[in-house]
Amino acid sequence: MESRQQWLTRLKNELSNSPLVSNVAFGFILMGLEKLVELEFECPCNPKWNGVFSSAFFIIPAVMAFTLMLIIQGCRCDTWCRKSFSSFVPAIVWLILLFLDGQYFACAMTDWKGRFVIVDKAAPQKWCEPTSEGDVTPQELMLRSQQLFVVSQVIGIFLLIFICVGLIVYVIRESCQQDSEMQDADVLRMSSLRTRTT
Q: What is the rounded CA–CA span in Å between residue 34 and residue 36?
């Protein structure tokens, strides 16, 4: 029981002290959550509700992820700490997952009435199949829907590149800062040795 308590204490310390560890852990949780949500996602296929409904899937979990990371990392309202910037990472990861999936963005941008069905001839992809004939043929609407999937995935890739570049800059900056601190510590140690020998 005591070793379990020590493990939990160490895990909590690691999550609060290391933004990278907490963000990676939270990222895996978000991936699982997105897969669960994907199973239940049903676009209303109504132009009045598509944007609102899909926006809720984008905004609410992202805000919750950001808030939870602020709590986990121990940021306070009175001081805007450096860790708060890393708290955006899980929210951006959530957005990346939704954009890479494509169906949430495609649903939000769909401007025709229909029913949410699986495309027969494509990879597992759902779209709003029109229920009534209009000026545009169902094939043209399916093509537009597939284009929305592609646009969504391109946005997701750009966000992923943004996160990767940010992570690289962060790692390089932290590495340089540690090297600088080590050099400063060596200089202090050497000067204290010189004063002792004199």
A: 5
| Cα separation, 38 vs 50, whole angstroms | 16
| Model pTM score | 0.75
pLDDT of 106: 94
Q: What φ, ψ does residue 119 adopt, rounded to 5°?
A: -70, 130
27, 110 contact by CB (below 8 A): no
Q: Counting Cβ atoms within 10 Å, is residue 168 exposed (0-12), middle (13-18) or buried (19+)?
A: exposed
Complete DSSP assignment for 29-97:
HHHHHHHHHHHH------TTTHHHHHHHHHHHHHHHHHHHHHHHHT--TTS--THHHHTHHHHHHHHHH
Report CA-CA distances (Å) from 197 to 75, 123, 189. Answer: 45, 76, 12
